[in-house]
Amino acid sequence: MSVATVSRVARGVGQVSDDTRRRVQAAIERHDFRPSRLGSGLAQRSHGALGIVFPGLSGPYYSEVMGGFEEEAVNARLAVLILGTHLLRESHELVRDTAARVDGLAVMGGVLPDELIDRLRDRGDPMVLLASRPRAGIPTVRTENLSAFDRLTRHLLVDHGYDRLTFVGDPENSPDAGYRWQGFAQAHRHVRAEPPAEPVRVGLTQSEGFIAVNRLLAAGPPPRALVCANDEIAIGVVLALLDRGHRVPQDVAVTGFDDIPMAGLPVSGLTTVHQPMRELGRETARLLLRDIEGSGPTAVDRVLETHLVIRGSCGCGAA
């Protein structure tokens, strides 16, 4: 029996006699054979591409993650299709169209509704969730957020003795921001302090951080520390405080999350949490490739380590 005949039966195409089809199908079931989607796709040149879905395409975080993802795809001789949805409802059809044109799809958490994720999974499309809350039956890659933000917040509460902290960011904006808000509240409970009931809800961009400070200062004196959901917000916060004549960290301490390159510049000196953004993209692509090949686990929750980076914006080393 030829390889071509087995391939036709496995793919359900071409003309094969009923008797031959029954014998091949019995052998497939006996050996639990599963064809490699990656191998067949490359052989047929049907797709030769991976897809990745983000809420937007601007900013250093997305650039680093996409860079790592693309590195692994290029090593596998695959192209990358990048879709920025900007969280628009009409983008759902674009996602379904993209999924049909690639060998596998990586989706950032919070971008698509759960029901669409489940439909793509149930359709059998290889998929990995990126920076997402885990979902049954779908591989997930994320970084450790909750404990890291707990450590950062306790550094401000315990090591510096600050007693008025405000979280700047929207926990509903992304799963990562939600975990960070939980870590912020958890740190307060650990030291028997009452956490703020609500954060200052803004988006994850520098301009949103600038707007947040202006809103806070219009309402009254600023808190002793502004604990931002990411570095881009934090940099916008610092710029707004300096613009209003407030000193950082002497008057208001500021912290971020991500450790983007700008956070480490002497002019920024931002205390933050380092997360391996490029490795996050690489590991997402690796898991997706294994899912396509059928050689990886059907569901895995891969959590990458993060660590606290102390610089001057929290008050350490400040005169």
From TrEMBL:
Transmembrane segments: none annotated. Coiled coil: none annotated. Keywords: DNA-binding, Transcription, Transcription regulation. One of its GO terms (molecular function) is DNA binding. PROSITE patterns: HTH_LACI_2. It holds the Pfam family Peripla_BP_3. InterPro entries: HTH_LacI (IPR000843), LacI/GalR-like_sensor (IPR046335), Lambda_DNA-bd_dom_sf (IPR010982), Peripla_BP_I (IPR028082). Residues 1-44 form the HTH lacI-type domain. The keyword DNA-binding applies. PANTHER family: HTH-TYPE TRANSCRIPTIONAL REGULATOR GALS (PTHR30146:SF109), LACI-RELATED TRANSCRIPTIONAL REPRESSOR (PTHR30146). This is LacI family DNA-binding transcriptional regulator.
